[in-house]
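We were asked to recover a plausible sequence for a given structure. The inputs and outputs are reproduced exactly as logged, with field labels preserved.

PROBLEM: sequence recovery
POSITIONS: 815
GIVEN STRUCTURE:
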């Protein structure tokens, strides 16, 4: 007993057991045979129903009876799995040529379950007889069933009179393998086989003259000829399957989208639910109602649209975001030579042809043996009739049947078989046995035997038999193609107007990077100044925008962050909003400098950006188009050369006939034409704006349309402010030092904090390092010359030193 105990590692035991299990489910459960296209449970269902006489030309029988027969004799598994397989074989939206007819509820395209098997009735469909034809003529190998009962042998494969694997397709998942073979058109596949029979060296292009591509029972439009070719060549490929739709005009000038065919294996109810959820969640604007109008006459899903909705745009959105369009992946794996193989079109057709040749050969051999046996008997009967009286006398003189047979063999040289036929002949048969009839039968048998021998001896004759049978099947069962094929996969571009309702909202972007949009109702319900920002944060942009507009947010690190207005988080006006770093990620000291709103992104115009280390550049809007990664990565707008340098400010302009006025911290000012600033790419640094002293830096610059009339405001770190006419400086060239715009003091000299263009309506909000905001009205201060240091407007000891200035324009009040 101790000798029978083995010490094995868990790894060895698990590996062995799982290997056996995998082999079983690959070969005996989940994958179809390349010859008849059936999984074992499907083959057993068809065979058991055929054995039971449950065929198309007889009445329906309870499905439970057929399931019981299959389970009791051939397939010792759960009745539910057998019934599910039977139901699928009857579903005309899953199979191109259903192999079972079923009375009662056999499920639906909406994913409804079938009625229980005690309620439904089933029988083999007419085309199933072609799958089982000649199975009783030793055409396929038979094996003992699971309990080795001699009376219940089952076939290892069906004769398969038509190429079921390609016609009905297959789907399944096993251990380490999966299969996804689409259905095809019977006529097309048969024509390809007929061509292959005559041209064994045919290549894929030759075969695809006949097999254009899959032909789904639910129709639809197939896109992607390259994917089909790849699948037929390698066994793997990808296509797009699109619903068949059209647009109709209905009352009130509105339109509706009508779907008449949907992609293969799509759950119609789930698809409709998804479309309706898009409507309810306002993911797509313009859908009024979605309803299913399908009936016994055909499929019809109606999507009613609102007035002036973009029907084609909405349809493209639905193709892109719902199962109105799907991607179908070929994975043509089948059992060939007892192992799973990934097969192309030609390999599948060749396997089927080889199977039919074997079936026809075995059938012919069976019929030849049967005909030869009958010929031998007929020859004996003819001989008997010529010596009838002697035969009768010999039989009468015999003691029993066995003795009679021995006497016939001995006296007249009959064979054992002939003697058996003679002694088994009933006496009345002698009265009407016609020698002529026997001679005719002998002639027919001789002719049939010659034909059988010719088929067995000549491959061409055998192939002609296969060809004749396939042509008959294609003529009797074939139908027109349901799925149409388009060579290219259409690129779906969805206009923003389809997915976003055009609404006017209030948008705010703050210096610290907080962004929000609010409804006008929310904005008007509170004091506009109650904007949710921290005391030391200022709104850089506040304005009414359409949800269809585009925002470009420029930061002092030289980045541009793109946001469509509709993608900005919706919040109440008194809420802070969402910080840009939640999606894009801002640097520790990165601040928002400017915000630009565009109706469309194909405008002609340039961004003008300047840096604190004395560079300036222009970059076209066309060079700063949002990329796929815009939600998580900013675009570089200006490359900063010097460590610690920042972008001082930014403009967008379409007018090159302007001046640039730039000032430095140490109070140098330089006015030069914008035309001297070249337009360069987004990742460039640009050109020199000002020739700076080593310890100096640019504070900022402005663009000026009429420099001779312009007035600028200058604020210093000591809290002094002055207005100055820009004509005091005069136009020079780029990259020079410029002129002093403040008088240089020996002790505690003024250093410029900010410079801006001002007029009578300008208001300045000054943020100090004490987190206080002080509002200045420039018009209240006199205009000074270039040597003036202005007047003190901020008590820096009490209110803090100015660090940032926001300019805003106030509409003058009519007197």
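RECOVERED SEQUENCE:
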């Amino acid at each position: 007993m101790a000798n029978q105990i083995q010490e094995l590692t868990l790894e060895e035991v698990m590996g062995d057991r799982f290997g056996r299990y995998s082999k079983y489910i690959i070969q005996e459960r989940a994958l179809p045979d390349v010859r008849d296209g059936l999984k074992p449970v499907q083959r057993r269902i068809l065979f058991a129903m055929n054995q039971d006489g449950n065929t198309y030309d007889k009445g329906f029988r309870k499905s439970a009876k057929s399931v019981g027969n299959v389970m009791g004799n051939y397939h010792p598994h759960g009745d539910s799995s057998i019934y599910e397989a039977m139901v699928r074989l009857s579903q005309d939206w899953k199979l191109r040529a259903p192999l079972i007819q079923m009375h009662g509820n056999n499920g639906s395209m909406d994913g409804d379950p079938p009625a229980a098997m005690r309620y439904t009735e089933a029988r083999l469909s007419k085309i199933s007889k072609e799958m089982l034809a000649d199975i009783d003529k030793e055409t396929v190998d038979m094996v003992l069933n699971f309990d080795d009962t001699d009376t219940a042998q089952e076939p290892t494969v069906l004769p398969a009179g038509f190429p079921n694997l390609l016609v009905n397709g297959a789907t399944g998942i096993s251990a380490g393998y999966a299969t996804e073979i689409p259905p095809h058109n019977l006529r097309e596949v048969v024509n390809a086989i007929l061509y292959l029979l005559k041209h064994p060296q045919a290549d894929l292009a030759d075969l695809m003259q006949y097999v254009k591509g899959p032909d789904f029972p639910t129709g639809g439009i197939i896109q992607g000829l390259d994917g089909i070719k790849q699948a037929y060549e390698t066994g793997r490929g990808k296509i797009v399957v699109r619903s068949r739709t059209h647009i109709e005009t209905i009352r009130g000038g509105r339109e509706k989208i009508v779907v008449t065919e949907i992609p293969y294996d799509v759950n119609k109810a789930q698809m409709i639910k998804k479309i309706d959820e898009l409507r309810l969640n306002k993911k797509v604007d313009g859908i009024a109602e979605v309803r299913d109008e399908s009936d016994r006459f055909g499929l019809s899903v109606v999507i009613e649209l609102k007035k002036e909705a973009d029907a084609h745009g909405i349809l493209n959105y639905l193709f892109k975001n719902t199962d109105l369009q799907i991607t179908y992946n070929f994975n043509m794996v089948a059992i060939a030579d007892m192992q799973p193989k990934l097969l192309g079109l030609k390999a599948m057709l060749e396997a089927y042809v080889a199977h039919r040749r074997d079936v026809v050969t075995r059938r012919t051999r069976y019929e030849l043996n049967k005909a030869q046996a009958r010929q031998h008997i007929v020859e004996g009967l003819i001989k008997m009739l010529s010596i009838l009286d002697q035969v009768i006398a010999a039989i009468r003189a015999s003691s029993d049947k066995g003795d009679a047979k021995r006497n016939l063999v001995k006296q007249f040289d009959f064979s054992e078989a002939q003697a058996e036929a003679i002694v088994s002949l009933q006496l009345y048969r002698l009265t009407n046995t016609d020698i002529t009839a026997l001679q005719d039968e002998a002639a027919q048998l001789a002719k049939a035997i010659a034909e059988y021998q010719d088929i067995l001896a000549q491959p061409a004759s055998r192939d002609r038999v296969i060809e004749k049978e396939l042509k008959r099947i294609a003529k009797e069962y074939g139908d027109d193609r349901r799925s149409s094929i388009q060579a290219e996969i259409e690129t779906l571009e969805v206009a923003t107007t389809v997915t976003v309702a055009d609404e006017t909202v209030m948008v705010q972007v703050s210096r610290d990077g907080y962004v929000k949009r609010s409804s006008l109702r929310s904005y008007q319900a509170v004091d506009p100044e109650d904007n949710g920002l921290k005391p030391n944060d200022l709104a850089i942009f506040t304005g009414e925008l359409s949800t269809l507009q585009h925002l470009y947010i420029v930061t002092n690190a030289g980045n541009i962050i793109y946001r469509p207005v509709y993608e900005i988080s919706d919040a109440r006006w008194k809420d802070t909003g969402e910080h840009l770093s939640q999606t894009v990620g801002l640097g520790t000291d990165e601040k928002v400098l400017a915000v630009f709103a565009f109706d469309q992104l194909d405008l002609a115009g340039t961004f003008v950006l300047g840096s604190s280390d004395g560079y300036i550049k222009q970059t076209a809007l066309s060079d700063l188009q949002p990329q796929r990664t815009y939600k998580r990565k900013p675009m570089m707008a200006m490359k900063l050369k010097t460590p610690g340098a920042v972008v001082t400010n930014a403009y967008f302009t379409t007018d090159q006939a302007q001046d640039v006025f730039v000032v430095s911290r140490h109070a140098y000012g330089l006015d030069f034409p914008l035309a001297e600033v070249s337009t360069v790419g987004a990742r460039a640094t640009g050109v020199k704006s000002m020739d700076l002293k080593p310890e100096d830096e640019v504070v900022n610059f402005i663009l000026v349309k009429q420099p001779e009339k312009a007035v600028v405001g200058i604020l210093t770190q000591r809290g002094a402010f002055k207005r100055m006419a820009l004509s005091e400086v005069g136009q020079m060239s780029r990259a020079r030092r410029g002129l002093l715009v403040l008088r240089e003091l020996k002790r505690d000299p003024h250093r410029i904090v900010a410079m801006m263009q001002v007029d009578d309506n300008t208001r300045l909000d000054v943020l100090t390092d004490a987190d206080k905001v002080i509002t200045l009205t420039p018009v209240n201060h006199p205009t000074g010359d270039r040597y003036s240091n202005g007047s003190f407007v901020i008590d820096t000891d009490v209110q803090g030193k100015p660090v940032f200035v926001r300019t805003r324009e106030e509409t003058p009040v009519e007197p």
